[in-house]
């Protein structure tokens, strides 16, 4: 069944299991929500695709902003959302990031390209946390040019892991219901989210229709651990989020069981080593934690015993980890 609704210059078309969001002459096709899909542009009376040559996150951010989706985003190459058909209108697109439309970006002449549809580019635009900090707050997800709040019912730790990972906020510490960061003033999201926990974007998680939910039960997520300065997301200086600011962990009593908890929390396998003495470079700002005493079985770093929040310490003693999932 086809559903068509017009709102200003935005056109939504929902058919079978695919979502299409179109704003003027740009649309996303083939994703599982309206802020994810293959990029298509309308030119000379015909929709066509965009080649992934030179495409980067700056280009993606322009498309997401143009469509009214959040600019925190990912690029999907090699026809991730399926190959298009017909024209390939754009190639070698290079946006500065300030453009209001992909049409304003530098590119080859419309229709000139050296690509096939196996190189059609796609984008995924992400959700956001509201009411706390960038890494904590009420979860809202985009649909078209509108943000929707998410119900706490059936929202679990696996869903939160994907949210925190996507926002570059480490691992989730808490999933909170009862509108912990205030009630949203947007519409409620009508889908139950069922992430496996290993998705790298929230928009890739499967969904099913949900029961009625009110803003009394808006879900919130608090994320708190990340690794910085390594050559992968599973190696680096340990940083924790506290009072809205990232800070480091002092290496006093830092050992492999402590590192084991960090690796587990971040979904990075087992701890290989627990480097000390700012092995991954010195951090800045606060040294939040010292004297950690983890057994190795704790679910999050903040479940371990430590000497309270905030100490006077030198960043030359910042702790790090190297996990097996490099």
TrEMBL record:
SRCR domain residues: 26-126, 127-224, 225-324
Keyword Glycoprotein tagged: yes
Lineage: superkingdom: Eukaryota
Alphabetical list of Gene3D superfamilies matching this protein: SRCR-like domain
Cytoplasm recorded as keyword: no
Cellular compartments per GO CC: membrane
Signal peptide: 1-31
Cysteine disulfide partners in this protein: 51-115, 64-125, 95-105, 195-205, 294-304
Keywords: Disulfide bond, Glycoprotein, Repeat, Signal
Name of this chain's protein: SRCR domain-containing protein
């Amino acid at each position: 069944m086809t559903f068509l609704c017009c709102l200003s210059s935005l056109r939504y078309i929902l058919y079978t299991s695919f979502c299409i969001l179109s704003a003027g002459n740009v649309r996303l096709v083939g994703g599982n929500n309206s802020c994810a899909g293959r990029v298509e542009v309308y030119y000379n009376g015909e929709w066509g695709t965009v080649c992934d040559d030179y495409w980067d996150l700056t280009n993606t951010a322009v498309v997401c902003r143009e469509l009214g989706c959040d600019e925190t985003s990912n690029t999907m190459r090699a026809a991730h959302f399926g190959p298009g058909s017909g024209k390939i209108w754009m190639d070698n697109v290079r946006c500065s990031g300030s453009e209001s439309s992909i049409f304003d970006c530098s590119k080859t002449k419309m229709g000139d390209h050296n690509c096939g549809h196996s190189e059609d580019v796609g984008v995924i635009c992400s959700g956001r946390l509201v009411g706390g900090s960038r890494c904590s707050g009420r979860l809202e997800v985009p649909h078209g040019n509108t943000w929707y709040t998410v119900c706490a019912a059936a929202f679990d730790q696996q869903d939160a892991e994907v949210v925190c990972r996507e926002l570059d906020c480490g691992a989730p510490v808490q999933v909170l219901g009862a509108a912990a960061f205030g009630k949203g003033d947007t519409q409620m999201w009508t889908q139950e989210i069922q992430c496996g926990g290993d998705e790298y974007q929230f928009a890739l998680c499967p969904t099913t229709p949900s029961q009625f939910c009110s803003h009394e039960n808006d879900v919130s997520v608090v994320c708190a651990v990340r690794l910085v300065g390594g050559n992968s997301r599973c190696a680096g200086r340990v940083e924790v989020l506290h009072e809205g600011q990232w800070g480091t962990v002092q290496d006093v009593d830092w050992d492999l069981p402590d590192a084991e908890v960090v690796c587990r929390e971040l979904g990075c396998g087992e701890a290989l080593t627990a480097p000390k003495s700012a092995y991954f470079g010195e951090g800045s700002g606060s040294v939040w934690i010292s004297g950690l005493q983890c057994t190795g079985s704790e679910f999050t770093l903040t479940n371990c015993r430590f000497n309270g929040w905030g100490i006077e310490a030198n960043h030359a003693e910042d702790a790090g980890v190297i996990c097996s999932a490099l």
